[in-house]
């Protein structure tokens, strides 16, 4: 995998809880979601033991490798190393990005959750490959979310990365997360994907949307992913 070529446009974060996955099979859902157009998969599981995480991650890694879609492990550098997947996603309370980089080496993807301009610059400096910016909208999927940054907050972070940063900040990949559904993703696209205010200042658009429930809880994850793909690639109907 060449990490510089990863397409972040539709980033699926898994959730195995009853409230979201229900009685569906995790692998079946992920397989269908990839068939529908998901471009990155993050395995996020807050309850399994290390052994359980590794077992599931190994199966997901086989599945994702078959589709040539990168698998990222949430929180756990040790699990990412054990299953030799594409990389890891770290929150502000997880292992710090520079230590993870030291352990994983230059070829693995490291993503970092950020909610502010200062966190974004710190993650870039520490060697992150992409930023998960959020929480965009309040969501039942993550009730302990630190801050709701909204469209305005995300635009501010993107603007600072694009205008004030060095080359690494300007080029870092970004996805937004939190409360994104098919119905609002065109608006998100319109407001965040391309800098919509004409300006001479070099600013940045977002590279993708990260979603949990809109795909994982769907009775038809493939159709749900296809819905995102078409919403993200067609111009919004309301402009
Ligand atoms: N981090 C910030 S919000 C969130 C995570 C993992 C959950 C987003 O879930 P959903 O169902 O797409 O709103
Ligand atoms: Mg975490």
Automatic annotation (TrEMBL):
Domain Thiamine phosphate synthase/TenI residues, every copy:
10-215
Stated role: Condenses 4-methyl-5-(beta-hydroxyethyl)thiazole monophosphate (THZ-P) and 2-methyl-4-amino-5-hydroxymethyl pyrimidine pyrophosphate (HMP-PP) to form thiamine monophosphate (TMP).
Membership in a protein family: In the N-terminal section; belongs to the thiamine-phosphate synthase family. In the C-terminal section; belongs to the Thz kinase family.
Protein name (database record): Hydroxyethylthiazole kinase family-domain-containing protein
What part of the full protein is here?
1 to 239 of 570
